[in-house]
Amino acid sequence: MKDRITISIVWHDHRKPILFSVRVSALKKLALFLSFLAFAWFLLQLWSLWNFMEKRKLLAEREEVNQKVNHLNIERLRLEEDREKINNSKEKLKELTSRIQAIEEYLRKRGIKLENKGSVGGATYTPTNDAEHLSFLIQRSDVLYNSLRTLPTGYPLEGKLTSSYGWRKNPFGKGYEFHTGMDIEAPAGSPVKATADGIVIHTGRLHLYGETVIIAHASGYKTLYAHLSRIEVKEGDRVLAGQIIGRVGSTGRSTGPHLHYEVIKDEKAVNPEEFVFWR
Description:
Structural class: alpha+beta
Strand content: 25-35%
Mean pLDDT: 85
Distance between the termini: 133 Å
CATH superfamily of the domain at 160-275: Glucose Permease (Domain IIA)
Radius of gyration: 51 Å
Order of helices and strands: EEHHEEEEEEEEEEEE
Number of helices: 2
Shape: rod-shaped
Helix content: 25-40%
Number of strands: 14
Largest sheet: 10 strands, antiparallel
CATH class of the domain at 160-275: Mainly Beta
CATH architecture of the domain at 160-275: Distorted Sandwich
């Protein structure tokens, strides 16, 4: 029985030992089976580890994809906001263009000749992009601003309007006479201001107007300030809109301290009230 092994189990309390024999071939088979189980367990552990690593890798990749998706969503929202801003800017450019066109048309009706080159209303030059368009409108606004500064606007002083342009009852006698400007009553010595940029072409006494200042403006208009008590400019001076050019008085044909103010176009007096209010 060389192919068998006897195994004895001995008890410490002197009980009878237990003996059993096992074939060597059976032990070899058992060892082989246990080795197979151990190898299978090892492979299972390796698969579990690989599976765990793959899951972690997939989770990391999914997290990365989610982050990219979130980033793309943020970029999409930013692009939509930028597109909305661009659309709003385009609308504002259109609105600004329309307003400049309206101002140019107003100035043309007033008889001011503007530069035709690049004019918004019928331009020969067309901007190719929004930035160029904006620069173009800024340039046009400068032209309009300079033109407006040469257009007589507003009152030359604060006071009470006592006589308007047109036919009126003669304040010195019977009948009616045509009044070529507006009379503004104010205390003697009140400052009289130029209503537009220009060059002084007359200072001194002028017939029934008394002490008078006449200013020529690049817009083609002239303004006349009469019955002054004092003149504070001289012929040839360049004056700015709002600059004091004299003081209220009652010189010449006058019934009391006031300013006679005229706006002249093509050597003919026009209604100055048309230049006091925007219409």
